Amino acid sequence: MHAIEVSHLTKKFGALTALNDVNFSVDVGETFGFLGPNGAGKTTTIRILTGISYPTSGTASIFGHDIQKDTIAARQSMGIVSETSNVYDDLTAWQNMIFSAELYHVRRDIREEKAKELLTTFDLYERRHDKAHGFSKGMKRRLTIAMGLVNNPKVLFLDEPTSGLDVQSNLIIRDVITGLIHQGVTVFLTTHNIEEANMICDRVAIINKGTIAAIDAPERLKKTIQSVQSIVVSFDLVSMHQLDEVRNLSMVNDAVKEGDKFRLYTEDPATVIESVMEYARARNLRVISISTLGPSLEDVFIKLTGLQRTGGLIHAID
After folding, report:
1. Count of domains forming the chain
2. Does residue 187 share a domain with residue 243?
3. What is the per-residue pLDDT for 125?
4. What per-residue string of b and e applies to 262-299 under the rule 16 or more CB within 10 Å gives b?
5. pLDDT exceeds 60 at position 148
6. What is the Cα–Cα distance from 215 to 208, expressed in whole angstroms?
7. pTM beyond cutoff 0.85
């Protein structure tokens, strides 16, 4: 039995098709990333899988329970952390936890124990008696995730869990997710942070315009576009004209500036390295570092979703 199984899922909003015949399954204990541009269908999929919205056609099940026909049984095994906070500002952190435990029908004799455990894990226990309206965005996000874990879910839905958060909150949340993975919890993660998905996901699905473009392990996806290689180089001096200059070097397909470094995309790394060294000598520059990289998951994402880089930014292709 799969933890999540989706078959021929279609969702229409009038003339708009948000999901178009989507099929995938997630194994028990798997960490599954769901990536796509804004409007690709990620949140629509999560809303259907968690019983908030119904599909136009097709089916979805959680541990064998059809989300439409057996909603209560399907929801009993899941924790849900939506992109928008569901924290009640007028309640304290402790009251939010207890209220969430009641909603999940957590037994009365273990509610307080679980609330204390999770608030401690998310570094919120010392603030348990403070109302949530005084919390920072990162603290509210941590509290939201703690509330989603209060029933010890077998499958956890995380919709953009670390979007726009401070470094401390990011680290805490990632550590907790890693701990859940080690405990065998199935994690369904949507994220704009492609590197985050690359680090923690067993497999990722890339969805674009309501259609699945690819599903595979991150490393196997990278191997599908081995032609997209790159050289990362840094010089001792940086000028405003260098990006255009290195972009025009022999065999460079594109170039982006990444901090104090330049990343040059190519199908011929050896030739580009020679061109970079000649360029540096001609301008009396010293090469501080230079390295060759294979394709990244971001490269796969850009290729499969029809996006393109322009001057270091990613844009949709009309």
Report:
1. 2
2. no
3. 97
4. bbbbbeebeebbebbeebbeeeebeeeebeeeebbbbb
5. yes
6. 12
7. no
